[in-house]
Amino acid sequence: MPIPSSLGVTPGTGSNIAATSYTDENAHTVLDQKVILGEQYLSTFDANAIGINASTSASHILQIMAGSSLDVRIRRIIVWQSAVATTAAISDLAILRLTSAGTGGTVVTPTTLVPSDTTTSSARTLPSSKGSEGAIIMQPTLTYTQTVPVSGPGNAMLLFDYDWDALRAKPLIIGAGTSNGLALKIITGVAGATLNVTVTYSESVF
Length: 206
What we know:
Elements: E1 19-23, E2 29-33, E3 43-53, E4 60-65, E5 71-83, E6 89-98, E7 106-108, E8 111-112, E9 122-125, E10 133-138, E11 141-144, E12 158-163, E13 172-174, E14 181-186, E15 194-204
Antiparallel strand pairs: 1-2, 3-8, 3-15, 4-9, 4-14, 5-12, 5-13, 5-15, 6-10, 6-11, 6-14, 7-9
């Protein structure tokens, strides 16, 4: 067990530290420093892919590539089903690294959450020439709906929602460099289904 300790600060000799007095587990009176979390300062963006055809097996429904000088820190990936499947189906979605950028498809302009921020990263949907695939980060299984329920949970069409903001863990990072990226890959296509995807990420020099 760690040995309790305290930091002495002499009032009037400089900036003060806000603290609250309490008795610790060893019956010592100590001061617990008050910490107030500051606002997030990293530039943050949403890459939105809307109405993406999910019928083609092995397609990259969305790719995100880093810029030349800033790391991309993936915060959250959300996938909704936006049109019903011809037949109810189960299919895997791979989230994997890219070691080269795909070309073709449709360019997606990341949306900034603060108007004054600018992005160095890029995104596109369904590249006709896919980037080179690297390590798989995770491969969740998605259940596609054939018929929309008459009633039930309001998030019935939510297929996947995962964030990398856990304490004591780094976010999912794409290292700086225009050959470094991430793709969401449909393993087995689902006829009739379309998807809406939002990837929220920040850019940083570290």
